[in-house]
Design a protein that fits this description.
four-stranded antiparallel sheet, 2 helices, single chain, mainly beta, 24 strands, about 350 residues
């Protein structure tokens, strides 16, 4: 073992609290698909957007619609990480912010047109202006910490999604069950000795103070980013859930998707009370509330999009799971978006690395 290797090995031990050296909790197995007791929606697959500059999409983490209907695709090819298309998805308008994230996960656009981007592995959320310039940062890049009930420690632990209420308070859900580290962890040597950090070793994995994704939680902040409250989403059986999406209902309730359980947990606006739980037979992966207030849900590896009522009942569904990339198979409906007129549904496929365009008949 050379000198640098010894330093790295020492840093991984000495910089890690004993609690963080324990074996991570196992992730909960995903529930089997139960077909919805609802009709198939009158849609069909359309022509998919093509990646620009002769590139191919990396796994498509998320997508969002700007107020003018333009589509922004957030994918895991660093060279074309953010791509903006016209509302039809056929014309590329710009490629911007290459390599902004290490592990792209979520993208949302608030009612003011600001673009919010989430890097789940580096535990950070950026607020961008409509031009794509970073104007705020939330969390600490590459860092996490053990949860402190008395105050927010300023850090996230695998943030995944974000939503706003009518007063611009925002809610963040976290915990991907400890999964989804990128293959190349160039900037991960953060919890280490100063001399190791100075050496800037490439691809070094070290143990953070808290188990990645080990604190499943939904958090509320005011419009200026001040922490207000939170609620734990931990399971009594010790399995790490994937708390994948969040949306605020027209009445102000906070809906949180517990993906692996196929469950939706509904909180009051202050996250003090669990109003109810809604058990579905599909993976609760990505919420979307369209311009009319209609609720939609993408179902992860179950491959469907579902139109839902705010009573939690499925009103209709479309799509099919599969493994063929050059087809209409959906490897994973990670997140979705719906046009203002409901004529076009967009789905981010984070397994087969494509954007699905689904058009009304």
């Amino acid at each position: 073992m050379n000198h640098l290797s010894k330093l790295i090995a020492a840093s991984m031990l000495l910089a890690t609290p004993l609690a963080a050296q324990t074996t991570p909790m196992p992730q909960q197995a995903e529930a089997k698909l139960v077909m919805p007791d609802a009709p198939q929606l009158p849609y069909h697959f359309g022509t998919r957007p093509v990646a620009p500059n002769g590139e191919q999409f990396g796994n498509v983490a998320a997508l969002a619609l700007r107020p003018n209907g333009n589509l922004i695709v957030f994918n895991r090819n660093p060279a074309i990480m953010m791509v903006e298309y016209d509302p039809t998805g056929t014309k590329v308008l710009r490629v911007f912010n290459p390599n902004i994230a290490m592990n792209p996960h979520g993208i949302r656009i608030d009612r003011h047109g600001n673009i919010w981007v989430i890097d789940s592995f580096m535990n950070i959320i950026w607020k961008l202006n409509p031009n794509g310039d970073v104007i705020r940062t939330f969390g600490v890049r590459g860092e996490n910490a053990v949860w402190d009930e008395t105050r927010w420690n300023g850090m996230f632990n695998q943030p995944l999604d974000i939503a706003w209420d009518k007063d611009d308070n925002f809610y963040v859900v976290q915990s991907h069950g400890g999964t989804s580290p990128p293959a190349d962890c160039t900037f991960c040597a953060t919890y280490d000795l100063p001399q190791v950090r100075a050496a800037k070793p490439r691809g070094v994995f070290v143990h953070p103070p808290a188990v990645p994704g080990g604190d499943p939680r939904v958090l509320k902040f005011d419009k200026d980013g001040k922490y207000l409250s939170s609620a734990s989403m931990a399971h009594n059986d010790g399995f790490l859930p994937v708390i994948h999406s969040v949306v605020v209902s027209p009445t102000g309730e906070v809906w949180v998707a517990d993906r692996a359980s196929g469950k939706i947990v509904v909180f009051d606006k202050d996250l003090k009370t669990r109003n109810r739980e809604i058990q579905l037979g599909q993976l609760t992966c990505g919420f979307y509330q369209d311009a009319t207030g209609q609720l939609w849900l993408s179902t992860g590896r179950h491959g469907m999009v579902m139109k839902m009522g705010w009573d939690g009942k499925v009103q209709g569904w479309f799509g099919k799971a599969g493994t063929v990339r050059d087809s209409n198979d959906v490897g994973e409906g990670h997140y979705m978006a719906v046009s203002k007129d409901q004529k076009t549904i967009w789905v981010a496929d984070s397994v087969l690395a494509k954007v699905h365009k689904i058009e009304h008949n």
